[in-house]
Amino acid sequence: MPGSSTVRILDGNTFVVSEDTGDIEATPTEPTGLFSIDTRFLSKWVLTVNGERLNALSYDDLQYYEARFFLVPGMATHYIDAKLSIIRERAVGGSFRETLTILNHDEKAVDLEIRMDAGSDFADLFQVKDEILNKKGEIYAEAEPDKLRLGYRRGNFRRETVIAASRPARYDRNGFAWTIHLEPNEQWDTAIDVQTHAVGPGGRDLRMGLRAHGTERLALQHDLEQWIAKAPKVNSEHGQVASTYRRSLIDLAALRFSPLSLGGQTLPAAGLPWFMTMFGRDSIFTCLQVLPFAPEMSKTTLRILGALQGTRFDDFRDEDPGRILHEMRYGETAAFEEQPHSPYYGSVDATPLFIVLLDEYEKWSGDVALVKELERECRAALKWIDDYADLVGNGYIWYERRNTDTGLENQCWKDSWDSLSYSDGTLPPFPRATCEVQGYAYDAKMRAARLAREFWGDPAYADQLEREAAELKERFNRDWWVADGGFYALGLDPNGRQCDVLSSNIGHLLWSGIVQEDRAEQIAAHLVGPRLFSGWGVRTLAEGEVRYNPIGYHNGTIWPFDNSFIAWGLRRYGFAEEAATVANGILDAARYFDGRLPEAFGGYQRELTKFPVEYPTACSPQAWSTGTPLLLIRTMLGLEPHEGHLAVDPRLPVGMGRIEVLDIPGRWGRVDAFARGRLDLHNLAS
Amino acid sequence: MDMTTTRFFEDLDRRGFEPLLAKTSGTLRFDLHEGPQTTHWLLEIDRGNLRVRQEDQEADTVVGTEPRLFGELVSGQENAIAALLRGDMTVSGDLRLVLQVERIFPGPPDSRGPHHSFERRTA
Known about the structure:
The complex is a heterodimer of chains A (686) and B (123).
Chain A: E1 7-11, E2 14-18, E3 24-25, E4 33-36, E5 39-42, E6 44-49, E7 52-63, E8 66-73, E9 84-93, E10 95-104, E11 110-119, H1 125-130, E12 138-144, E13 147-154, E14 157-165, E15 170-172, E16 175-182, E17 187-199, H2 217-230, E18 233-236, H3 240-254, E19 256-257, E20 267-268, H4 280-290, H5 296-307, H6 332-335, H7 350-365, H8 368-373, H9 375-388, E21 433-434, H10 435-454, H11 459-479, E22 481-482, E23 487-488, E24 491-492, E25 498-499, H12 505-512, H13 517-527, H14 560-572, H15 576-591, H16 606-609, H17 623-626, H18 628-637, E26 640-642, E27 645-647, E28 652-653, E29 658-666, E30 669-679, H19 682-685
Parallel strand pairs in A: 28-30
Antiparallel strand pairs in A: 1-2, 2-4, 3-6, 4-5, 6-7, 6-11, 7-8, 8-9, 9-10, 10-17, 11-16, 12-13, 13-14, 14-17, 15-16, 18-29, 19-20, 21-24, 22-23, 24-25, 26-27, 29-30
Helix pairs in contact in A: 4-5, 4-7, 4-18, 5-7, 7-9, 7-10, 10-11, 10-12, 12-14, 14-15, 14-18, 15-18
Chain B: H1 3-15, E1 25-34, E2 37-46, E3 49-53, E4 61-65, H2 67-73, H3 80-86, E5 90-93, H4 95-101, H5 117-122
Parallel strand pairs in B: 1-4
Antiparallel strand pairs in B: 1-2, 2-3, 4-5
Protein name (chain B): SCP-2 sterol transfer family protein
Pfam families (chain B): SCP2 (PF02036)
Domain SCP2 (chain B): 18-105
């Protein structure tokens, strides 16, 4: 993974990861480069002056799509004598552009050889990620008088990088160069344009006509300003919540992604650098988190996921009729079916969550037209839950991959291989079922019943769904309750044996409403109790479990996204203080990451480390971490659509002071919400 | 001419209405190139109502492939999105139409769907 000195800029699924000098020298352990549509288009991009590498004095990532590097020749000890400075300014937006400026501070004239080494391995993102490098096609480089063309060809699959500078340069197959003469105080500059092409046999690019906004720097800037202007304003007494909100809003803008099939509309991609693509689960969770602030993302997400809903059995892609996709990729491994992401459907939560999002979106927006438009897709999704997901035949959603080579073993959000275990630490056989997914199914049926009754004119279907939901709730509370622990099992195996470990998943059950009222207090107590709650947040797996590890990906780390839904669930059952405790811990943690919450951080006790320890290979920014502060604000302010109005019922901790959220959009037009911290969270411990 | 392709289009024409395309309207032309020979199939979709003709007419979307690959696509042996990413199938015009129509292609003939364990036990 890139170290801390890497600089990342992005626009949609085009992004650049470089060293702090702006150079790119990719190795399996340093996955830097220029990436687009899941392909690396530059793996080498090294600037030298008179054959010498440059050193960074400083860099600024000005906006998510642009960065500036101040460089000098020579080693660190020579900085003081530098007579030359070099500024690299770069932006992504469709293509990648870099402006070089060289200033001579010397009293003498200088002659300089400026050279950029350029090359590409055209690695598929999956090859970069998994460090597999055995390209089956042919890599080529062609120097032309006015450009350098780097390419990769495998059958009809062709990807090209075309590099051209505004000043005439000498191009060769490994880069390009200029010989220049600078008088004292003279400066020289040039603009380099790097185009990425996904060329079909007719010479047409796959991505033509796709962009939501212009790709020029000014258009990008204008688009970002509009995005911020359109979103509600958040002011906070101590400034901190407001600045975290602003950081999230900008990162969310950066993560907007325009899939090939949506004609320029955008939905949130999952995260930089590995997941700049469409994920069913991540996109839906993010939309749910940001609904009060950016509702239009939900509409586009629902439309695109509905348009790509499964229609047939395809065992390689784990596709079934009615199933909502898991992940879409555009790279070489997807194209040649070495990976199943064209798209891959191996997720069991995206399908019920699709319905949950549609209902929640309607409650906020009043967009009845979309509810009607997606009736067929909702019915197909509900049918999938009943007919295709119940592999054991006992009324639950199960999973077992049919693609045993490249499919996903665990098809819930905790998708690592060892995320599901019994209390003795052993792993259950397949098919497997996890508790939170049963909660989503319950919620989906309850919400679909409302949609059927109010908008689809089908009260009989609504009754049926409510009956099924009630039966599911009863069954679930019988089969999944771990009586001696006072919580719900994380999973179930096909023989009905419980994975009887205490996990964060029980918080999602509160959010879904499947928890029996008289058990909610026990669940809430576990969530803020010492085994699960670290002081910063709720651990994925409780301390004391055999597989607990404070830096175990799904076995002990704290996921901000997970916590935001747990807080929402706590509030749903009336545990406002517990919700505020979780929200407060996560927002405190955000301070240590300049407002940008990582994918996950360590489950260490807060008093032990004093700061949240970032999980080593965490993705950042990641969409559902970015959405987390927004959902926490909603939860603490108790924002809830109610009979066409926005209800506000704030429960903030004392230290948070006054918070105001202005211009919250919805069916009510735009309204403001105000809150003041009055909760003394210390009461909770006693 | 590949019989699979002919059967596929004849079946679409006979079907008249396809619920999966109920929100889709537009025309697609499939140009199946083999050497100097090109066979054209024109599919008109009007909110799910289908009409097929063998004509070379302007269309919102033009799809180009070899006839053999197209036969494999409409019989589920090959996947259209992968073929598109590979460059073996080309599209000009509105890409969304292709991605909608692709959904009515069948799955792979050897795909069996979910393995229900209660069926396995009773099998």
